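Reviewers of the previous submission asked for a worked example of the structure-prediction workflow described in the proposal, so we include one complete record here. The input consisted solely of the amino acid sequence. No template or homolog information was supplied to the procedure at any stage.
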Amino acid sequence: MNLRNLIEPFYEGHLKRQCRHIPNHIAIIMDGNRRYAKMLGLDTADGHRAGADKTEQVLDWAQELGIRHITLYSFSTENFSRKDDEVGYLFSVFKEKFIGVLTDERVNRYRIRVQMVGDPSMLPEDLRQAVCDAEEATKDHTGFHLNIALAYGGRNEIVLAARQILEEVQKTGTDPEKIDVRMVEEHLHQGKGIPPVDLIIRPGNECRTSNFLPWLANGHESAVYFCAPYWPLFRKIDLLRAIRTYDQRMATKTV
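From that input alone, the workflow returned the following structure tokens.
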């Protein structure tokens, strides 16, 4: 066992003691899978697989810390411009994970509700069906909420909500003057009731939020934490440091 492995558990404990406020909803931009693969001389697919494995580990940490909602930025509308074989591989991984929800014992043990955030019309039919099956199987779960952002764009989420509101106005004759913040929030993400974001985390040494969940995050002035490790190298210490940033912000607000 090296010195780092000996020290990290003590440092984790120190960070936990500093985190008096635990965020209810964390949004994570999982950046750096491809650069991780390039750094190690691996195929891009290996980087994405390592990122998927890290995601499962981070979800276990979130459960342990008492976080109730996590939204993962998995595939943006801009990602469709990547090479067809990379997009196809990612879709196969997403499909595998959504199908796995149906038999994963942790889903029932922790009462995990799985939902998709984004535009399902942009996904292939088999993946869309896997998403629907996972959402249906977990719709009554209330222990932990996992939102997967697929075919997601920050501006697009506002456009989709606006279309739904317009359809409702045309269908029911709702007075446009009655369109307010509450109505917009009710139509975001197909009305799935996702709460405001408390903390955005972005690994991979990129200091931008990429317009992720603009209404729920920027609109509610969420805390933001950027860190250097690529997503497959993200550690529990990095998660705790992020929560400490949120805790410090909350402490300042209560002064």
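The CA atoms of residues 1 and 7 lie 11 Å apart. We consider this example representative of the routine output the project will generate in years two and three.
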